[in-house]
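Predicting holo structure, nicotinamide-adenine-dinucleotide bound.
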Amino acid sequence: MRILVTGGAGFIGSALIRHLIGETDHEVLNLDKLTYAGVLSSLDPVGDSPRYRFVRGDICDGELVGRLLGEFRPDVIAHLAAESHVDRSIDGPGAFIQTNLVGTYTLLAEALAYWRGLDGDRRDAFRFHHISTDEVFGSLGEDGYFTEATAYDPRSPYSASKAGSDHLVRAWGHTYGLPVLVTNCSNNYGPYHFPEKLIPLIIIRALAGEPLPVYGDGSNVRDWLFVEDHARALRAVFERGVPGETYNVGGDSERRNLEVVQAICATLDRLAPRADGRAYAGQIGFVADRPGHDHRYAIDASKIKAELGWAPQVGFEEGIERTVRWYLDNRGWWGDILAGRYDTARLGLAKA
Ligand code: NAD
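Done. Tokens:
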């Protein structure tokens, strides 16, 4: 298979590409604009594989997308390129509207023209796979789960832009017959996660001896999925999923934010004890809650389990241990980011 991955220099896109090059014979073209969140060194493990190629470009550039589709002739478009950070969407929603909505529209328009030009078996086999989030469903109380039938109720500029892009993708399926697939996934974590996100931020700030900020009282609940399990789920969906269908992907690992931070601290206490012998948890501090902070997300992933035989393989405790070890062993990767190649001011971290 030939797979055009958009946003392949990001956290999940790079995990997908490492998986596809490492575990399959598929060929990959990675189209990524390299925003602040795009980190090409996340693809170092792919090395100089002849099955991998990178093009720097914007999904909003229809001419470029059309040309790449014609040259590469993919069987699958795995669309991950997005602005993805909720806090940034509150400060500056414009980029989210541009990439997540206009970019997805541009990709759909070019994909439709390309797909219509395919013949016979290749036309039947083509898939447009849109990768989305559980945040489109809004917020849950203490009970219940998001299923594929849950009504959309996005609350932040980020989740609203993703919800809009999901609707566009399904509309292109219903209206034009484009063979689309949508996945809505819970919070990912693991190696190569950009330092502004909760888990890497806590690890890095803990090691720097800085306060560990927890929003509100830390009671917000998220379901956590190890990113390599997500990569396997995406592959299962675009290889075997039914066009027109949506699949929810989750880790069966609901944790309060405070529990997540405490788990990281306990792991660091074992693997990299503080020089003064004190517990890292002593660095935890509570900060004003995020505006409109959703209380709980929880995914019912029974459809993808029953229909495609996927299940998460890495439990939360193992995943946190692997993640903390990775950040301890790969200080060069995140040190580069903190060294000024990116806007670190908003991470509240001193530049290295
Ligand atoms: P990320 O921010 O780490 O990576 C996004 C990538 O997209 C970056 O490499 C960036 O350079 C690229 N990009 C941004 N705008 C672009 C544009 N206009 N043209 C081309 N490339 C562009 O994001 P992520 O965490 O890897 O998330 C990937 C996808 O998965 C997103 O669509 C996100 O909504 C979705 N998702 C993420 C999570 C999560 O927990 N991280 C959970 C569920 C779904």
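Residues 2-189+225-251+293-313 form a domain with the Rossmann fold fold (CATH 3.40.50.720).
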